[in-house]
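Issue: ligand-bound run for 3'-deoxy-guanosine-5'-triphosphate - logging full I/O for the record.

Environment: standard queue, default settings, no custom constraints.

Inputs:
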Amino acid sequence: MGEPIRILVVDDEENFRSTLKDFLSEYDNEVLTAENGVEALEILDKFDVNLIISDLRLPIMDGITFTRKVREKGKEIPVIVMTAYASIETAVEAMKSGAADYITKPFKFEHILFIIERVLETKKLRELAGKSEYYRKLSNIDDLTGIHNYRFFKEMLKHEIERHSRYNRPLSLLMIDIDNFKEVNDNYGHLVGDQVLKQTAHLLKKSIRSCDIVSRYGGEEFAVILPEILPDEALKVGERIVQTIPCHDFKVADTNIGKEISVTVGLASFPKDADNAKLLIENSDKALYLGKQAGKNQVFVFANIGLQMKV
Ligand code: GH3
Ligand code: MG
Ligand code: MG
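Outputs:
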Protein backbone atom coordinates (compact mmCIF):
# COMPACT_ATOMS: atom_id res chain seq x y z
CA MET A 1 0.00 0.00 0.00
CA GLY A 2 1.00 3.62 -0.50
CA GLU A 3 1.24 6.30 2.22
CA PRO A 4 -0.56 5.62 5.52
CA ILE A 5 -4.00 7.20 5.63
CA ARG A 6 -6.93 7.59 8.01
CA ILE A 7 -9.68 5.11 7.21
CA LEU A 8 -13.17 4.93 8.69
CA VAL A 9 -14.71 1.45 8.80
CA VAL A 10 -18.50 1.34 9.18
CA ASP A 11 -20.00 -2.06 9.98
CA ASP A 12 -22.45 -3.32 12.59
CA GLU A 13 -20.64 -6.60 13.13
CA GLU A 14 -18.22 -6.00 15.96
CA ASN A 15 -16.05 -8.94 15.04
CA PHE A 16 -15.65 -7.97 11.40
CA ARG A 17 -14.96 -4.34 12.34
CA SER A 18 -12.13 -5.17 14.65
CA THR A 19 -10.52 -7.75 12.36
CA LEU A 20 -10.56 -5.35 9.41
CA LYS A 21 -9.21 -2.60 11.68
CA ASP A 22 -6.33 -4.80 12.84
CA PHE A 23 -5.53 -5.80 9.29
CA LEU A 24 -5.49 -2.23 7.90
CA SER A 25 -3.54 -0.96 10.93
CA GLU A 26 -0.75 -3.39 10.10
CA TYR A 27 -0.06 -1.20 7.10
CA ASP A 28 0.38 1.83 9.38
CA ASN A 29 -3.04 3.25 8.56
CA GLU A 30 -5.00 4.93 11.30
CA VAL A 31 -8.35 3.19 11.48
CA LEU A 32 -11.49 4.62 13.07
CA THR A 33 -14.64 2.53 13.40
CA ALA A 34 -18.38 3.13 13.67
CA GLU A 35 -21.22 0.66 14.00
CA ASN A 36 -23.79 2.68 12.09
CA GLY A 37 -24.14 5.64 9.70
CA VAL A 38 -25.16 8.15 12.35
CA GLU A 39 -22.09 7.43 14.44
CA ALA A 40 -19.95 7.55 11.30
CA LEU A 41 -21.28 10.97 10.29
CA GLU A 42 -20.44 12.26 13.78
CA ILE A 43 -16.88 10.99 13.40
CA LEU A 44 -16.61 12.74 10.02
CA ASP A 45 -17.57 16.03 11.69
CA LYS A 46 -14.68 15.67 14.11
CA PHE A 47 -11.92 14.07 12.06
CA ASP A 48 -10.41 14.41 8.61
CA VAL A 49 -10.77 11.02 6.99
CA ASN A 50 -9.13 9.95 3.72
CA LEU A 51 -11.30 6.95 2.93
CA ILE A 52 -14.47 5.23 4.13
CA ILE A 53 -15.21 1.51 3.92
CA SER A 54 -18.87 0.94 4.70
CA ASP A 55 -21.22 -1.99 4.78
CA LEU A 56 -24.37 -1.52 2.71
CA ARG A 57 -26.62 -3.29 5.17
CA LEU A 58 -26.53 -1.19 8.30
CA PRO A 59 -28.98 -0.53 11.14
CA ILE A 60 -30.63 2.94 11.47
CA MET A 61 -29.38 4.20 8.12
CA ASP A 62 -28.54 1.94 5.17
CA GLY A 63 -25.18 2.22 3.44
CA ILE A 64 -26.57 3.94 0.36
CA THR A 65 -28.24 6.68 2.41
CA PHE A 66 -25.04 7.05 4.40
CA THR A 67 -22.97 7.40 1.21
CA ARG A 68 -25.39 10.02 -0.08
CA LYS A 69 -25.15 11.95 3.18
CA VAL A 70 -21.36 11.96 3.01
CA ARG A 71 -21.66 13.47 -0.49
CA GLU A 72 -24.22 16.01 0.71
CA LYS A 73 -21.77 17.18 3.34
CA GLY A 74 -19.60 18.21 0.42
CA LYS A 75 -16.84 15.87 1.56
CA GLU A 76 -14.69 14.48 -1.22
CA ILE A 77 -13.98 11.28 0.69
CA PRO A 78 -14.10 8.12 -1.41
CA VAL A 79 -16.50 5.52 -0.04
CA ILE A 80 -15.95 1.83 -0.75
CA VAL A 81 -19.11 -0.13 -0.03
CA MET A 82 -19.27 -3.75 1.04
CA THR A 83 -22.25 -5.79 0.05
CA ALA A 84 -23.15 -9.24 1.20
CA TYR A 85 -25.35 -9.88 -1.78
CA ALA A 86 -23.37 -10.38 -4.94
CA SER A 87 -26.12 -8.55 -6.75
CA ILE A 88 -24.95 -6.07 -9.33
CA GLU A 89 -28.09 -3.93 -8.72
CA THR A 90 -27.08 -3.04 -5.16
CA ALA A 91 -23.59 -2.21 -6.27
CA VAL A 92 -24.87 -0.06 -9.13
CA GLU A 93 -27.22 1.75 -6.82
CA ALA A 94 -24.37 2.39 -4.41
CA MET A 95 -22.15 3.75 -7.17
CA LYS A 96 -24.99 6.01 -8.29
CA SER A 97 -25.30 7.42 -4.79
CA GLY A 98 -21.64 8.36 -4.92
CA ALA A 99 -19.65 5.30 -3.86
CA ALA A 100 -16.17 5.13 -5.40
CA ASP A 101 -16.08 1.34 -5.62
CA TYR A 102 -17.56 -1.80 -4.07
CA ILE A 103 -16.52 -5.19 -2.82
CA THR A 104 -18.68 -8.23 -2.18
CA LYS A 105 -18.55 -10.03 1.14
CA PRO A 106 -16.91 -12.31 2.05
CA PHE A 107 -13.61 -11.13 0.63
CA LYS A 108 -9.95 -11.70 1.19
CA PHE A 109 -8.48 -8.78 3.10
CA GLU A 110 -5.63 -8.51 0.59
CA HIS A 111 -8.27 -7.81 -2.01
CA ILE A 112 -9.49 -4.67 -0.23
CA LEU A 113 -5.93 -3.28 -0.25
CA PHE A 114 -6.01 -3.44 -4.00
CA ILE A 115 -9.35 -1.60 -4.16
CA ILE A 116 -8.19 1.06 -1.71
CA GLU A 117 -5.16 1.75 -3.83
CA ARG A 118 -7.20 1.98 -7.01
CA VAL A 119 -9.73 4.34 -5.45
CA LEU A 120 -7.06 6.67 -4.05
CA GLU A 121 -5.21 6.67 -7.35
CA THR A 122 -8.40 7.64 -9.22
CA LYS A 123 -9.06 10.43 -6.73
CA LYS A 124 -5.54 11.79 -7.20
CA LEU A 125 -5.88 11.72 -10.97
CA ARG A 126 -9.20 13.54 -10.78
CA GLU A 127 -7.69 16.23 -8.56
CA LEU A 128 -4.79 16.70 -10.95
CA ALA A 129 -7.14 17.04 -13.90
CA GLY A 130 -9.19 19.59 -11.97
CA LYS A 131 -6.07 21.56 -11.12
CA SER A 132 -4.80 21.76 -14.67
CA GLU A 133 -8.26 22.89 -15.80
CA TYR A 134 -8.15 25.51 -13.03
CA TYR A 135 -4.76 26.79 -14.14
CA ARG A 136 -5.78 26.77 -17.77
CA LYS A 137 -8.76 28.92 -16.84
CA LEU A 138 -6.57 31.21 -14.74
CA SER A 139 -4.32 31.95 -17.68
CA ASN A 140 -7.36 33.19 -19.60
CA ILE A 141 -8.27 35.62 -16.87
CA ASP A 142 -6.84 39.06 -16.23
CA ASP A 143 -5.32 39.16 -12.75
CA LEU A 144 -6.41 42.65 -11.84
CA THR A 145 -9.98 42.84 -13.12
CA GLY A 146 -10.99 39.17 -13.11
CA ILE A 147 -12.43 39.43 -16.62
CA HIS A 148 -10.95 37.67 -19.64
CA ASN A 149 -7.55 38.70 -20.88
CA TYR A 150 -6.14 39.59 -24.29
CA ARG A 151 -5.17 36.01 -25.04
CA PHE A 152 -8.69 34.75 -24.49
CA PHE A 153 -10.14 37.66 -26.45
CA LYS A 154 -8.02 36.87 -29.47
CA GLU A 155 -8.94 33.20 -29.38
CA MET A 156 -12.63 33.96 -28.98
CA LEU A 157 -12.76 36.58 -31.70
CA LYS A 158 -11.16 34.20 -34.16
CA HIS A 159 -13.54 31.45 -33.16
CA GLU A 160 -16.63 33.70 -33.31
CA ILE A 161 -15.72 35.14 -36.69
CA GLU A 162 -15.33 31.62 -38.07
CA ARG A 163 -18.70 30.63 -36.65
CA HIS A 164 -20.47 33.77 -37.86
CA SER A 165 -18.91 33.43 -41.25
CA ARG A 166 -20.12 29.84 -41.51
CA TYR A 167 -23.69 30.78 -40.69
CA ASN A 168 -23.57 34.15 -42.38
CA ARG A 169 -24.41 36.04 -39.19
CA PRO A 170 -23.44 39.58 -38.15
CA LEU A 171 -21.14 40.33 -35.21
CA SER A 172 -19.72 43.56 -33.78
CA LEU A 173 -16.66 44.56 -31.86
CA LEU A 174 -16.43 47.44 -29.39
CA MET A 175 -13.04 48.83 -28.38
CA ILE A 176 -13.35 50.81 -25.20
CA ASP A 177 -10.70 53.10 -23.76
CA ILE A 178 -10.94 55.08 -20.52
CA ASP A 179 -10.60 58.81 -21.15
CA ASN A 180 -7.71 60.69 -19.55
CA PHE A 181 -6.78 57.73 -17.44
CA LYS A 182 -3.26 59.00 -17.05
CA GLU A 183 -4.70 61.88 -15.03
CA VAL A 184 -6.44 59.46 -12.69
CA ASN A 185 -3.10 57.83 -11.98
CA ASP A 186 -1.34 61.19 -11.67
CA ASN A 187 -3.96 62.65 -9.36
CA TYR A 188 -4.76 59.69 -7.16
CA GLY A 189 -1.96 57.20 -7.66
CA HIS A 190 -1.58 53.94 -9.47
CA LEU A 191 -3.39 51.83 -6.86
CA VAL A 192 -6.50 53.97 -7.12
CA GLY A 193 -6.19 53.70 -10.91
CA ASP A 194 -6.23 49.93 -10.49
CA GLN A 195 -9.47 50.12 -8.53
CA VAL A 196 -11.04 52.28 -11.24
CA LEU A 197 -10.06 49.65 -13.82
CA LYS A 198 -11.66 46.95 -11.70
CA GLN A 199 -14.89 48.86 -11.26
CA THR A 200 -15.01 49.76 -14.95
CA ALA A 201 -14.63 46.10 -15.89
CA HIS A 202 -17.49 45.26 -13.55
CA LEU A 203 -19.71 47.99 -15.04
CA LEU A 204 -18.98 46.77 -18.56
CA LYS A 205 -19.94 43.26 -17.62
CA LYS A 206 -23.19 44.54 -16.21
CA SER A 207 -24.00 46.50 -19.39
CA ILE A 208 -23.88 43.59 -21.80
CA ARG A 209 -25.80 40.41 -22.55
CA SER A 210 -24.60 37.13 -21.11
CA CYS A 211 -23.53 35.93 -24.57
CA ASP A 212 -21.28 38.97 -25.08
CA ILE A 213 -17.61 38.60 -24.23
CA VAL A 214 -15.83 41.38 -22.41
CA SER A 215 -12.04 41.28 -22.05
CA ARG A 216 -9.26 43.54 -20.92
CA TYR A 217 -7.43 44.31 -24.13
CA GLY A 218 -4.51 45.88 -22.29
CA GLY A 219 -3.82 48.88 -20.01
CA GLU A 220 -7.03 50.85 -19.69
CA GLU A 221 -8.53 49.41 -22.83
CA PHE A 222 -11.31 46.84 -23.03
CA ALA A 223 -12.82 44.89 -25.92
CA VAL A 224 -16.37 43.58 -26.16
CA ILE A 225 -17.38 40.95 -28.72
CA LEU A 226 -21.09 41.17 -29.51
CA PRO A 227 -22.19 38.00 -31.30
CA GLU A 228 -25.38 37.81 -33.39
CA ILE A 229 -26.06 41.51 -33.47
CA LEU A 230 -26.75 44.07 -36.20
CA PRO A 231 -24.53 47.18 -36.34
CA ASP A 232 -27.42 49.43 -35.23
CA GLU A 233 -28.05 47.35 -32.15
CA ALA A 234 -24.32 47.23 -31.41
CA LEU A 235 -24.28 51.03 -31.56
CA LYS A 236 -27.01 51.08 -28.90
CA VAL A 237 -24.89 48.85 -26.65
CA GLY A 238 -21.91 51.17 -27.16
CA GLU A 239 -24.05 54.21 -26.35
CA ARG A 240 -25.37 52.57 -23.23
CA ILE A 241 -21.82 51.93 -22.05
CA VAL A 242 -20.77 55.52 -22.77
CA GLN A 243 -23.75 56.76 -20.75
CA THR A 244 -23.37 54.29 -17.88
CA ILE A 245 -19.77 54.92 -16.90
CA PRO A 246 -20.01 58.68 -16.09
CA CYS A 247 -23.18 57.99 -14.05
CA HIS A 248 -21.30 55.64 -11.78
CA ASP A 249 -20.05 57.02 -8.52
CA PHE A 250 -16.57 55.50 -8.40
CA LYS A 251 -15.84 54.81 -4.79
CA VAL A 252 -12.24 54.20 -3.88
CA ALA A 253 -11.17 54.48 -0.24
CA ASP A 254 -9.96 57.96 0.80
CA THR A 255 -10.48 59.52 -2.60
CA ASN A 256 -13.14 61.59 -4.17
CA ILE A 257 -13.19 60.44 -7.76
CA GLY A 258 -16.97 60.28 -7.98
CA LYS A 259 -18.41 60.62 -11.42
CA GLU A 260 -15.47 61.90 -13.40
CA ILE A 261 -14.66 58.76 -15.38
CA SER A 262 -15.75 58.45 -19.01
CA VAL A 263 -14.91 56.18 -21.92
CA THR A 264 -14.66 56.38 -25.68
CA VAL A 265 -15.88 53.48 -27.78
CA GLY A 266 -14.88 52.45 -31.29
CA LEU A 267 -17.30 50.18 -33.16
CA ALA A 268 -16.67 48.01 -36.21
CA SER A 269 -18.91 45.25 -37.52
CA PHE A 270 -18.44 41.94 -39.28
CA PRO A 271 -18.87 41.41 -42.20
CA LYS A 272 -19.77 45.01 -43.10
CA ASP A 273 -16.52 46.68 -42.03
CA ALA A 274 -14.11 43.75 -42.00
CA ASP A 275 -14.14 40.13 -43.09
CA ASN A 276 -11.51 38.87 -40.66
CA ALA A 277 -10.53 39.22 -36.99
CA LYS A 278 -7.36 41.22 -37.54
CA LEU A 279 -9.06 43.83 -39.70
CA LEU A 280 -12.02 44.04 -37.35
CA ILE A 281 -9.68 44.92 -34.48
CA GLU A 282 -7.79 47.43 -36.61
CA ASN A 283 -10.97 49.13 -37.77
CA SER A 284 -12.61 49.34 -34.36
CA ASP A 285 -9.30 50.76 -33.13
CA LYS A 286 -9.38 53.38 -35.89
CA ALA A 287 -12.91 54.31 -34.89
CA LEU A 288 -11.80 54.58 -31.26
CA TYR A 289 -8.91 56.85 -32.25
CA LEU A 290 -11.23 59.13 -34.19
CA GLY A 291 -13.67 59.16 -31.27
CA LYS A 292 -10.84 60.43 -29.06
CA GLN A 293 -9.99 63.09 -31.60
CA ALA A 294 -13.62 64.11 -31.85
CA GLY A 295 -13.70 64.94 -28.13
CA LYS A 296 -13.89 61.58 -26.25
CA ASN A 297 -16.86 60.31 -24.17
CA GLN A 298 -18.71 58.99 -27.23
CA VAL A 299 -19.14 56.05 -29.59
CA PHE A 300 -17.50 56.34 -32.97
CA VAL A 301 -18.65 54.02 -35.74
CA PHE A 302 -16.06 52.81 -38.25
CA ALA A 303 -18.61 52.84 -41.08
CA ASN A 304 -19.09 56.57 -40.51
CA ILE A 305 -15.43 57.45 -40.97
CA GLY A 306 -15.84 58.03 -44.70
CA LEU A 307 -18.95 60.12 -44.12
CA GLN A 308 -17.20 62.28 -41.51
CA MET A 309 -14.24 62.82 -43.83
CA LYS A 310 -16.49 64.15 -46.55
CA VAL A 311 -18.13 66.69 -44.21
P1 GH3 B 1 -6.94 59.10 -23.60
O1 GH3 B 1 -8.15 59.81 -23.14
O2 GH3 B 1 -6.42 59.62 -24.87
O3 GH3 B 1 -7.13 57.62 -23.63
O4 GH3 B 1 -5.81 59.40 -22.50
P2 GH3 B 1 -5.26 58.44 -21.41
O5 GH3 B 1 -4.60 59.26 -20.38
O6 GH3 B 1 -6.30 57.52 -20.92
O7 GH3 B 1 -4.28 57.55 -22.25
P3 GH3 B 1 -2.76 57.24 -22.16
O8 GH3 B 1 -2.56 56.13 -23.15
O9 GH3 B 1 -1.96 58.49 -22.32
O10 GH3 B 1 -2.55 56.69 -20.72
C1 GH3 B 1 -2.97 55.47 -20.31
C2 GH3 B 1 -2.49 55.27 -18.94
O11 GH3 B 1 -2.99 54.05 -18.39
C3 GH3 B 1 -0.99 55.18 -18.85
C4 GH3 B 1 -0.73 53.98 -17.99
O12 GH3 B 1 0.16 54.27 -16.94
C5 GH3 B 1 -2.08 53.64 -17.42
N1 GH3 B 1 -2.23 52.24 -17.15
C6 GH3 B 1 -2.10 51.20 -18.01
N2 GH3 B 1 -2.30 50.03 -17.37
C7 GH3 B 1 -2.56 50.34 -16.09
C8 GH3 B 1 -2.85 49.55 -14.92
O13 GH3 B 1 -2.91 48.33 -14.93
N3 GH3 B 1 -3.08 50.22 -13.75
C9 GH3 B 1 -3.02 51.57 -13.69
N4 GH3 B 1 -3.27 52.15 -12.52
N5 GH3 B 1 -2.74 52.32 -14.75
C10 GH3 B 1 -2.51 51.73 -15.94
MG1 MG C 1 -7.21 56.15 -22.26
MG1 MG D 1 -5.23 53.64 -24.00
